[in-house]
Each structure stands twice: as C-alpha cells, then as structure tokens.
C-alpha cells in the first residue's frame, strides 16, 4: 500500500472542510455528536451528494454496513475507507486493495468492552446468572426452593480462539480469576505466557470453555465445528463474541439441544437478528443481541479513533488503525 | 478463648468415632458424600440421639440454620460449633462465648465463588446481560432492533464494603478490568494499595458502584441506607452478595423504582426467599436466589474445611477457621 496517491499535507486546499461520504445501512445510525468540525459528512440522501460524490476522497462506514465493489464504483476518487467496527469482514478488502484504497478499523476502541462482555457471558453461563434471575422473577424461589447449582468459574481452563486485541484483554481478566489460559491463533505469539495450540481441536480437548474472539475470514469460517464441539465435551462451554459464522450454528444447536455441550454464551449469530428458537428454552444458554462491544463509552472511543485516522490521513501521517491489505489470503 | 476445656489428644478415647450433632433446618440438606470416617453424624431424628445428646462435644451446622441459646441448652457438653457458611450471623455468638463454646466458619471455602459472582452480578447489571437475554428470548430483536446500550464495566470506580476474604478477591478481579478500587472496613488494612474510606458515605460519593460483601452484625445492619444510596447517585449500582439486611431493602426498592439509582445486583434479601415484587419489572436489576457462593466445587471446599477443623479440634491443634469471639461488639 505504498503506491496510493499522496494527499496534500493540509486538511483541504480551499479552506473548507473535507467531504466524507457516510456509508451505512439505515439501521446503523450516525453517532451524535459527530465531529463536524473535522469533516463535512455527506450521505446519498443529501442534495449536495451528486456534486461531491465524484471527488470524495474518504468514506466512513457506520457499523458493519457492507461495502462492496459496486459501492466503490460510485467513488472514483476515494483513497481511504474508515471503518467503525472492530472487524472488517463487511468490507470487500480484496477490492479495496485492487483499487489502492486504504482501510482502517475501529482498532482497539471496543476491545475492553468486548473482553468484559466475554467474561460476563462465560460467568453467566457457568454460574447461571440470567437463568436464576428468570427463576426469581417468575416467583419460583419460595415455591421450588434452592435453584440448581451452576459451575465454578475461577480456576477453570479457558481456551481463547484468537489472541488479538480483545483476546489479550480476555486473558488478562481470566488470570485474575485464577484460570489456566491457552490459545490458538494463526501463529504463536512471542512474549505470551499462555500455552499455544496450532489446532483448535487440541485447544478444545484441553479446555473447559472456549472464548471465540477472532476475526471472521474464509480461514476462520466455522472454525468451531462439530469436531471442536466433540473435543470440548459434554461439560464444555462456548462463548462467541466474534462473528456468528465463526461457529457452525446448526451443529451448535444440535449439541446444545442434545446435551452434548455444557452451555453457550452467544452474542453473535449466523443470521442476525434471527436466533435459533430451539435455544430460547435452554437454561444453559445466554443469548445476547450483538452488543458485546457496545457501550456509550466505546462509541466515544471509536469516534476518537476515526477522527484520529481522518486527521492522520489528511496530514499525511501514519494511520492509527490501518488494516494490512498485503496479508489477504 | 483460652479457657475452654482441653479435649483429649486422640480422636476418641474408646476407639469409636466421635459423635457430631447435625443441626439444620429441613431445607438445608446434608451434603453427600459426607466424611463419615471422621465422625458419626447424629440428627435429632436418630434413635440414638437421646443417648448421645448429653455427651456430644461438637455440633455441625448445615447452611445458615439458626443456632440459638435454646438449642445450645440441649447440649451441655458441647465445646465447639462448626459452621458451614461463610457468615456466622445465624449463630448466637454471644451465647457461645458465655458458654465457652468455640465457633468456626467455612473460612475462605466460598470466597472465590463469592468474588466471581460479585463480578458477574456487577457485569450483568452494567452491561444488561440478563435483560438482553430476556429481550432475545422474547423474540424482540428482529422486531425492535438494537437493544439499549448498557454501561462500560472496565475502568470504573468500584467501592468494596468489607475487604475480607471475599472482598480481597473481588478487588483482585476488578484490578484486571482496570477498575479503580476503594474500600471501607472497620480498620484500614496495612499493605493494601486501595484507598480506604472510614465512612461508607464517603466511599459511595467517590464510587460508580458498590460491592457489599461484609459480615452482618449489629454494626453493619443497614450499612447501605438511604444516605449511602443518595451519595452513590442516580447512575450508581449496588451489588449485594453479603446478607440482605446489610441493605435497607425498602429504601433500595424506593430508589430503584424512582430511578434514583442506576441499578442493583442482589443475591441476598431481607426476607428470603421473598423478593420485593416491585423489582421484577426492572431491567436494571439482577435478582439471584442466594447462590453467590454455591457451586459443587465450593461444597467440596467447605466439606474439606469442616473436616480439617474437626480433626484439628480432636487433635488439640489450632482450628483452621475459628471465629474470634473476643471481638464481639
């Protein structure tokens, strides 16, 4: 990505704010307040859009709105695409590379919240927090007496699938609970004290629970498949805060309904917002509407990251959270 | 407690197992397996109970079954009472002291689980895990769209009320989430890096959330009162895993219903198993049926602690988790 067109070193050449095309599905709303003193956001519905479309140099994608080749065709001058999600699987990266368009993600803006939530989901499944809350709200405590015991969280063996920004923070948290941590990822990380397993199945075999927090790609699609679930075993718990398609959902439902897995904490699903209804009746499952990384505080963080990236772009400085497109498989 | 009658240095003088009176409410069941090779458990329903009652030297209390003066009247030879709960507020300690009866608790057997659960409840309230699970199970995700955001957990200011076995482990966990930790307790702990506030109100004023995990006594009854809730403020969250009566429950309900508190995660209540029904409709509240410290693993731990105490008692060695009765206020 060294051959992209160099932008001028000032924000704009004519003392007006640079144009940023806002690309979003209707359900992903523009954050408010948005830093309008740094760029001028233009949506396709804007009367000025036809004027600015041909010359716009940057696109800001709100949430995981898909950005495909046919979208890019509308923007012949675009040089950089700024994502506001932790993942970039909604962006056609190969097409961006082909067109010499740079891409940024939200970087680590969401990482703390994602890691926090992963711990929350695992705790909730093991200790049955949500299920016990249902039990109390249904008025069953005085009627049925003690709620069935859950399982201990502290000291358990937890396997992390994907030791990136979020996975690393998950591990840090698990350490404080006395958990034994292992991980799988494309390559062994140096300076990481946790056991590395190149094979997810081997990781599952030696873990009580798996936390899935890797990026979705062709390589990681259904990385948690039937064989991994079998290796994890009847008491094993799967937490997924990555993307739905990292887990073979049909198999997962079969394993859970058949009692072949201990439980699951799922923030993401293969066909969101659809969730397999078979899971609605299970007390060893916690279901969450793709919100692991979403707090008011993380929205502030991501806005800061986007602003920093935009300012770096127009100042011809290194981008804060650029995706390495030379690495596409 | 130096003047109690010294037991013989062998387990029993006649090579039979020592008798242990089992004292329990019917709803607290005898754990199974129980180490019958160490003592001979006798319940009042046992045909041999009348024979052993006058000479029994130890009582084992199952769960928080109340042990009062009138119970002790039945056991003129009792020297030591072994609790199986983390707290000992169900035992008439003053009466035990008067009769020169030693008392043990479950010590730290439950501490890890208690600390884990406290983190789980706080996470659940802040990030709305249980409420979001209800939202998904009700089929509302495809209908209503995004679930309202919760609040960030990591990095927040958390005040710990009672820095004992559990509180210390809570603090250790919170550190990994980047939280700022402060505490109140009867006295400042040396070698603890957290800010100490002698006053609960001052602690509440400088905290985003409070985790209540102190013992219940006359001194701590309703330690979380109206003034503390006011000091904590509209966004403040209270987690209680100690005893229900540590919190003024009527005031808490008023504050929550009136939107004067951010939320609450409650494992304990003033009139268990009754839970104020006003709370059943609140999404910023997580309700749990007094199970913070209960896992199969912690039951194993507590059995080990009781056994160690019993063996120490009959071997005339220091008890593992003796309560200091000289400290009664």
TrEMBL record, chains A, B:
According to the entry, every stretch annotated as the D-isomer specific 2-hydroxyacid dehydrogenase catalytic domain falls at 55-322
Q: Which of UniProt's keywords are assigned here? A: NAD, NADP, Oxidoreductase
Q: Which domain of life is it from?
A: Eukaryota
**Cellular component terms, GO, for this chain's entry?**
cytosol
The GO terms this record gives for MF are: glyoxylate reductase (NADPH) activity; hydroxypyruvate reductase [NAD(P)H] activity; NAD binding
A Pfam family this protein belongs to?
A: 2-Hacid_dh
What is the protein's name according to its record? Answer: D-isomer specific 2-hydroxyacid dehydrogenase NAD-binding domain-containing protein
Species, as recorded: Mikania micrantha (bitter vine)
